[in-house]
């Protein structure tokens, strides 16, 4: 590792972090939305507030919050899905044709999609609270009203138009297409045996803010009854393929966006379409992509540091790259990297009693009777010597280290989950092929 990186680590990671304990059995938020100073980096793009779907900052907080045990189980299913796309030996960069669909049902059936934005669709505008997912391209809203959702009725919108079966937008769906019904394009987004998202594929006006709208926004009008997604109205796809909101708005905002996930369930962050005019405050690393899996955005980890001391993990351990995921909760590291991190973190937590594993988490502690704790800092070091110091709220979950060892074969990328991204503005700029990080942004 270069001397510059060593210096950065000394500057960024020279002390422990003192944090308040989180709840044990769930991720329950406080009853009141705490509004921290939110500072989007871009004043030229379109910025909307981003909130935790179970917290008081959400426009329609869901009430069916899972326990931490349920959440971790669902998150493992989610990680398996993402990593299955890259399974070695299947050809096409590890993809089988039947695997080219995206799990829009994850957030509703498995409750792993945690963050929501509120936008408007149609004319007149119908307010919609939508889950966000960087591992999904096709956006959709309910057009048959499940309990707890706001029905979007396309027949009442003067700007809605379904695509014909011969329209380029319909052909572009590829394996996500579902044939025709009444001469209208149909979509079908599948996830294993969980209820699909199916319906008519069309377009309408998307209202992001009072001054920012997207005309002819393409999305699915979901007609299946499916599994109710709490109080959310649909899903906003932020992946890298042609159907995503990011790709659809490339001419206006460039194929770039950023988001900041809040530190707790009871505070808010933001989602911004468009790159900042200045990279001041950001550090950046090259963005990696997979040709056969254009949905995902990748980075290359080089090492990890605990309290400013590099673990000196061999570069070959990270050769399969990592997916940046806003929808996966727990980061999955190559087993050798996780073992080194766990050992170093335990050494830095020697003053606390070890606790039994919790589901997929095996580096756990007993903080009984404590209202605050002191933990070692963790820094992720990316390609180019870019050191990103994790926020104190991005290290532990349910009294355990919020990392796990990947259980996939060689050739499969690891995952940088959303816990580690808390309070950091993450910039995904396809046009410039960079991933940026700006600390303490929300």
From TrEMBL:
Residues 1-22 form the signal peptide. The keyword Hydrolase does not apply. One of its GO terms (molecular function) is aspartic-type endopeptidase activity. InterPro entries: Aspartic_peptidase_A1, PEPTIDASE_A1, Peptidase_aspartic_dom_sf, TAXi_C, TAXi_N. The keyword Lipid metabolism does not apply. Keywords: Signal. Residues 115-438 form the Peptidase A1 domain. One of its GO terms (biological process) is proteolysis. SUPFAM superfamilies: Acid proteases (SSF50630). Belongs to the peptidase A1 family. This is Peptidase A1 domain-containing protein.
